[in-house]
Amino acid sequence: MQGSSRERGWTALLLVVTLAVLVLSGATNRLDQLLYDLTLRATPRAAPANILIVAIDDESLSQLGAWPWPRDRHRQVLDRLAAGQPRAIIYDTLFLTSQDEKGDARLAEAMADAGTVGLPMLFRVPGTNGRGYDAALPTPVIASAARVGHADIHPDSDGVVRRIDLALDGERRWLHMVALAAGDDPHVAGAIAALPTFVPRSGDAPLQRRGAVLIDFAGGGGHIRTIPFISVLRGELPADFVRNSYVFVGATAAGLGDRFSTPTNGASGLMPGVEIQAYLLDTLQSGRAVSEAGALSRIAAGTVALLLLIWAFGRLRPSSGALAGLAMVVLTLLASALLLGGFNIWLPPAAAILTLIAAQPLWAWRRLAAASNYMVEELTRLADDRDTLPVASTGAATTGDQVSLQIALMRQTIARVRDLRALVTTAVQSLPDPTVMMATDGRIALANDTAIALFGNGAPVTAAMIDGHFNQADPPLPAFAPDAIASPAQPWAGEHIGADGSI
Length: 503
Hints:
Elements: H1 2-25, H2 29-42, E1 51-56, H3 58-64, H4 71-83, E2 88-91, H5 101-114, E3 117-124, E4 134-136, H6 140-143, E5 147-150, E6 163-169, E7 173-175, H7 177-181, H8 186-193, E8 208-214, E9 226-228, H9 229-233, H10 239-242, E10 246-251, E11 259-260, E12 271-272, H11 273-285, E13 291-292, H12 295-313, H13 318-343, E14 345-346, H14 350-383, H15 402-429, E15 436-438, E16 444-447, H16 449-456, H17 463-469, H18 482-486
Parallel strand pairs: 1-9, 1-10, 2-3, 2-10, 3-5, 13-14
Antiparallel strand pairs: 3-4, 6-7, 6-8, 11-12, 15-16
Helix pairs in contact: 1-12, 1-14, 4-5, 12-13, 12-14, 13-14, 14-15
């Protein structure tokens, strides 16, 4: 029992160390990303009812001409949207250069009349003259009428967008334009307040990303309500679509604007940047911002699963242990999915799953090694026993091959058992009196030829033959069996008259 506990301890320690290495090294990040994507696809949600996208799509481009459009077209759309009384308008279009001062002024006036308007800025990395970046803002007159923030989308290492940073820190802090435009929402305000304290950085230093938010994509591309830009310009937008809603205006046409891979793309292809920004707002305002568990939490959760599995291994048969390992893998996946879907906590499970999978063969190897070592120790001890028949040395102890050593010791032990059996048989056969040896289960294990002639007449001797041979009348004898022979009264001890009159 002590050896088994020691094996469980060493196995658990090795697996926990492996788990920690996988988590801290990030070796399973790609697999965790894949599992995150699959979980989001498996748990779609209804599209947000208070978000509308006005799409600068192929239809609008074909009707209104090539991009860029005159400022007055944007002004007209802003006026029509403002008439519907939206909560905010996030205009995901760069106005970095001036087309004409009057057009810029009229557009700025329309933005001011619309209420809250968010606009993006652009970062050029690296910047000029050795700077880490250059910040390009909309023209001053337009920027003065809007809330200007960054709209940077930074894909993960595999090229998939899963998170957006709420702030970029440099010489000053630039909040995301969605956070600025929707800052009156309590959940958005809470996310902004939770950002780390701003510490100014030199202009020569690169931007520092802060407040990454894992986006809870409700669906794939086209899932959020969308209306073409041209339809708004024609007055075809129902007022109910806009009232008390967040309205995004941005490019969805192929070749115009950025398009990215997301976890929920599926067969819908790449997702336009404006739709990703809309999903960011949906995530923030719904309070579904996903928190990713840290390394210590991942190691702790995986350790609990491993210890439970090792405990089960010590109490189950090998076949049942394999099923327990599979069940623990499934439970780990389900727990991760439930935490994400129910509590907005992403606990990456890949490292725990890989170590759980490795636990079964590792445990089997350690148990086989322990059994092998025990066998070698016992066989060696038997081989060294001086109180039994001597046998020729196999020379196995001098070899470095554990399997060869076991085979040689087993061969030597079998030879010794055969020799002992032959010795006992010869000794019993040489006795002049009928002699019977009974096993503890009542079988006749051995009878010499004299006993066979007396009881069995050439047939194998049985307890029933012995019972029938003796006169049971006076005094009566119990059945010839281990219990009768071992009883304190010893009814079979002494002399008895056989059926043939012999004593």
